[in-house]
Amino acid sequence: MPTLSDKTDLRKVVLTIDMGGSKNKAMVQEYPEGKTSVLLLDPEVADIPSASIDTIESHGELESRVWIQTAEGSYALGELARRRFGGILQLKELKYELAVPKVCGLVWLAKEKLNLPNNFAIYLTILLPSGEVQDKKQLKLSLEKVLRSFLTPSGKIRLKLLYCDFAAEGSGVYFYHRLYGGDRSLPPSIYAMLGYRNASIFSVRSGILSPGVTSTFGMAWLVNNFVAKVSGLSADNPAIVEVIVEAGSNCDSLVLQKLSRKRRMADVEADGELFSKALTLARQEYVLAIARWLRSNIDEDIEELIFCGGTVDYIHAEIDNFFQKQSKISIFWHGNISIPEEMFASIGNRLADVYALHQHIVVLLDAKMGYDRLVSVSTKANEVSDVKEFSTNTSQKFDYTPRPRPKNFVNVNENL
């Protein structure tokens, strides 16, 4: 863990960020005993003329009017960027290249949600794809410079950065899975994070994490493939992925009619059928591409494969069926993480990685600060009373019902 500083009278915040290709997700709480909250921000970023800031409405939902201004320029984020300034997903850009304005935007949302003053201190952790973690030094320098002072809709924010670190996507799931494993020694494992923009994996052997590999096989690969098979659709339309997911594994033509731009009902119905056929094929091609990529990265000694990321739920059945043939490999979904119901209702398992990492950071902070939490928490693996979910039986059936929070996992006091 990087060097910590706690010598300040400023109010302190723990902020953990996952900059997803379809949604920026963050967990935030005032340290030490604040309630943990979820922050969500659409992924679009648009650089704008500084004069445009004066034209932005100052009322409405917070998430719909996020902008920031630094010495490097002015930026609109999320819905504002998409609706007013032609902001797009920019999926071909590396995440760290767009990180600074996104982090600043989420900091402003945190300030507003927690009713903080413009000057406060922060413990910051950011998830990056495995293949981009090596850029963390450059990103950290940029953040240290910008977070000292930047302009927002609430005026100038000045942060004291008490802690700043970066972790590979899937790290939160790894820490949780390791903790929840009890006394058993974790076998050689692969953690596969299937997100919207990309897919990343890293292996763990004897508690040592590999550098990891990142590919372009995120949900966007499927969306682009589907759009290329039909006419009249743009991959930049955020509604497409929502409809695709709603259409389910059978690619329901009635649901896919929502994507039609036709006016006559007969034409809309025809589009639904065409979209269903195209999506069925695109889905088959995507599953085979993912399976091929995973197979090429799984060494013979791997015994566990832990999937996480929102895309995993979309192709759950196909992935499960494929790896049933790998009799020695046990499959886990989202590391068996249990997300509190009020958080799960927002975007479901897509929060699993950042939620688990945030909880892990709080545990580390408590240990470093010698803080005894109001709600007693045990982090000792040998106090786990039930580890039956770690059975190596590969014929188990899976469901998406949120599991109870494990007794030994950190429980932030959410009643304050």
Low-confidence runs of at least 5 consecutive residues = 376-416
Main sheet: which strands, in order across? 3-2-1-7-9-8
Q: Termini, distance in Å?
A: 28 Å
Order of helices and strands: EEEEEEHHEHEEHEEEEHHHHEHHEHH
What is the 3D form? globular
Number of helices: 12
- What about the largest sheet? 6 strands, mixed
Rounded mean pLDDT score: 85
Helix residue percentage: 25-40%
DSSP strand count:
15
Estimated share of beta-strand residues: 15-25%
Secondary-structure class:
alpha/beta
Write down the Rg.
22 Å
Write structural notes for this entry.
This protein is α/β, with parallel strands linked by helices and 416 residues long. The chain has a domain at 232-284. Helices cover 34% and strands 21% of the residues. The protein has helices spanning 78-85, 99-113, 136-146, 171-180, 219-228, 238-247, 253-256, 265-297, 310-314, 316-324, 341-347, 352-369; strands at residues 12-19, 24-31, 37-41, 45-48, 66-70, 73-77, 119-128, 150-152, 155-168, 189-194, 199-205, 208-209, 213-215, 304-308, 330-333. The strands form three sheets. A six-stranded mixed β-sheet has the order 3-2-1-7-9-8. Strands 10, 11, 12, 13, 14 and 15 form a six-stranded mixed β-sheet that branches. Strands 4-6-5 form a three-stranded antiparallel β-sheet. α2 (99-113) crosses α3 and α5 packs across α8. The longest helix is centred in the last third of the chain and has 33 residues, at 265-297.
